[in-house]
Amino acid sequence: AVEEMRLAKHKKYTKSHKKFRFFDKNDSEDIDRAEFESGLKELGYKSSTKKIDHIMGELDTDGDGKVVFVEFMRPTAKKYKEELELEAMADTDRAFEHFDTDFSGHVDANEFYEGMAHLPGMSEVGREDVEDFFRNYADVDGDQFLTYEELESIDPELMKVKG
């Protein structure tokens, strides 16, 4: 699986590099405004001078009038970061649904223990240890319930059973 992820990342990089090279007609390892405009026209885009200047300004983060590969990739990296953040939120949503068995909108110590008991390796961890973790770490505001935000703030590394 790790190798597949590495290859997929490499493939994505290669694909992005091909797009960059499409615009970099003179193989200078940067794209100037004329190359960018030419590439857009070749792709069938009819952009105004103002629009091209705006896009170049967004891409050219150091303001030298040229876009290097790292700058070219920045919008993609930002989108990737946003996708990772959405995935993390979805993971928290699933976790909250797993623990909040009575759908009350919060998780009490018993629900937390029951939810933890189903995780791999948790059979060795006692109820007292889980409740202690709940009271002294997870329940930040001390109201004896975990909110979505409190559950989200738990470091996943602390939830792993050391073996």
Descriptors:
163 residues; mainly alpha; Recoverin, domain 1; 2 domains; two-stranded antiparallel sheet; repeat; Centrin_CML-like; EF_Hand_1_Ca_BS; EF_hand_dom
Short structural summary:
One of its GO terms (molecular function) is calcium ion binding. The protein has about 160 residues and is mostly helical.
Low-pLDDT parts are none
User: Would you count the extended β strands for me?
Assistant: 4
Task: Give the integer mean of the pLDDT values.
Answer: 82
Major β-sheet annotation:
2 strands, antiparallel
Distance N to C terminus: 23 Å
Domain EF-hand: 11-46, 87-122
Protein name: EF-hand domain-containing protein
Pfam families: EF-hand_5 (PF13202), EF-hand_7 (PF13499)
Organism: Hemiselmis andersenii
